[in-house]
Amino acid sequence: MMQPDQDTIVAIATAPGRGGIGVVRLSGSDAQRIAARLIRPGLSLKPRFAHFTEFHAPDGVVIDEGLVLSFPGPHSFTGEDVVELQGHGGPVLLDQVVQTCLHHGARQARPGEFSLRAFLNDRLDLAQAEAIADLIDAGTVSAARAAAGSLRGVFSLEVNALVEQLIQLRIYVEAAIDFPEEEIDFLSDGKVAGDLAALIAATQQVLANARQGSLLRDGMTLVIVGRPNAGKSSLLNALAGNEVAIVTDIAGTTRDLLRETIQIDGMPLNIIDTAGLRESPDQVEQEGIRRAWAALEQADRILLVVDSQTVTPGQLANTDQLLPDQEKRLSSLGIPITVILNKADLSGLAPGIQTVDHATLAISATSGDGLQALRQHLTQAAGFHSDAASPYSARRRHLVALEQALAAMHHGTAQLHGQAAGELLAEDLRAAQQALEGITGAFSADDLLGRIFSSFCIGK
What we know:
Structural class: alpha/beta
Radius of gyration: 28 Å
Low-confidence stretches: 245-255
Strand order of the largest sheet: 8-9-7-10-11-13-12
Mean pLDDT: 83
CATH architecture of the largest domain: 3-Layer(aba) Sandwich
Strand content: 15-25%
CATH topology of the largest domain: Rossmann fold
Number of strands: 13
Distance between the termini: 21 Å
Shape: flat
Order of helices and strands: EEHEEEHEHHHHHEHEEHEHEHEEHHHH
């Protein structure tokens, strides 16, 4: 695994823009020496104590005045010597402080480098480090609480408990393989099978909580498609609760993708409105349709909007008939589709669920009839439960790791019961442990760490 750089880094730790307070953070072996060149001469920094001082440029001119705090390593966020310079939150002032630190030997920090150093110095694990970014980016109260749970280590504790159970099971299985003369009949005594079943059940529970946490963090991406004038933009406006899209009777009004993020019972929904799907000689509209198909490939669910005035009873009984011509391409994407029969107020359809098997709902985007049933359908389709919020946040890579661990355990169970193969079971348990350790960073490749921390903001 990569090692932390030895140089001292500096960055503005507060958000861009003007504010009452701005913080510049130093971390590294030279942090206190560099800070001493900026602050009042002779000022002795008491650990974790706020000192009022002036900040001086290299030529001695006073830049600003404020507080300086020292956090000697290893008892700091990064595990290194850390100094924070807290002044007024003007961009010009903060930049002068940073430039002075650079002049005295610091290096500009890369995105996420403070958190990366905290991880590499064992101040927090990888899941906790990711939770810092999730806490900053949280778009709902529930998402912020879940991220705070991960930052406190709730997720890591559950994952580490699974790893410990795996280790104990591996010890038992591999002892039976390595010492057959001891006559440990681990295949028939039921211990391995029982322990493995319990471990699978525990992992499934962690995965269920992680899925809730992932939904709180990322939500679900919905792409609205349909023919021109079916009411796609009206549906976007109705779900968003305001006029975010232009609605007219002119076909092809929407040319580009329109994006809006809303909440349903605390779950974020990323909604994308698209150009109407049809053959068009207009080059601008063709580009809009091309972008619509590109967005569809990234969707978690497709909302196919149909003018219910054009639907026949036969089509209502078999909604596959609602995908003629170009729209048949939707079914080939392998993405779940919900059919929205819009303009129910004009066609006379009763608002609400029409067919369960094909997920077909009748609504009126203009009057709002049927929208509550649609909202409930979307949360159910996502597997989200507003009354069972996750105690921690999770990312897609965490879900993949948990799923890989479960797959290895299930395969090991088959090896145990079908082949009575202890060696193959031991290999599956090793693979499961490796997948779980990738969540906390106990087993992580350098390129994975690079991708994760490069997405952080500078100063964290």
